[in-house]
């Protein structure tokens, strides 16, 4: 199985070409791997999992989010084969996004808290319809930005709202949050994949997220990589090119 294209990486590269000056996110001055965005000494590339998925994921991002090294939407696009990413604009609608939402192979679900919409639009489960594959629309932005995107995107009005009921608090430690019940984008995607029956991919994304967090924070704190950690062992099951897996 070969790696699938990462739509978030492609979006970042497109934005860099369009920008007249570089966007300097927090931590962006450190030399980083262009592929995984982690500081070079703690590169994550050898730990990218390879799994198959039936579901697809579409990330709706702000112009700044795509450049942030701590962004976890990037991890989702590494794991889910059919991944899409679009920059949100209040005044312009991307025709490619509208075409994706209308594609008959997909059943789109907008992932958002159900308390903000009419109850008849809300579901807590994913229909396992053999004629359509689930496509999870994730608003990859801060909570304030996500609410704005939700309110000002009329093309989402007809979509069912998938409201998740997580049993655990967020494990995300790379940015400050005032509410621990708010999951980061990768954690949300993992729950969605599990609901869609993509259990292996859900577990791989969870482990990948934990290893990414560990590499990111160890680099930030100038600590060596600990590849014997529990997170690395869990992820290693899904990484085909590790030395211990090459004979399998």
From TrEMBL:
The keyword Transcription does not apply. Its EC number is 2.5.1.25. Residues 1-23 are annotated as: Disordered. It holds the Pfam family DTW. Residues 10-20 have a biased composition (Basic and acidic residues). GO terms for biological process: tRNA processing. InterPro entries: DTW (IPR005636), DTWD2/TAPT (IPR039262). Keywords: S-adenosyl-L-methionine, Transferase, tRNA processing. Residues 29-221 form the DTW domain. Transmembrane segments: none annotated. It comes from the Bacteria. GO terms for molecular function: tRNA-uridine aminocarboxypropyltransferase activity. This is tRNA-uridine aminocarboxypropyltransferase. It comes from Pseudomonas saxonica.
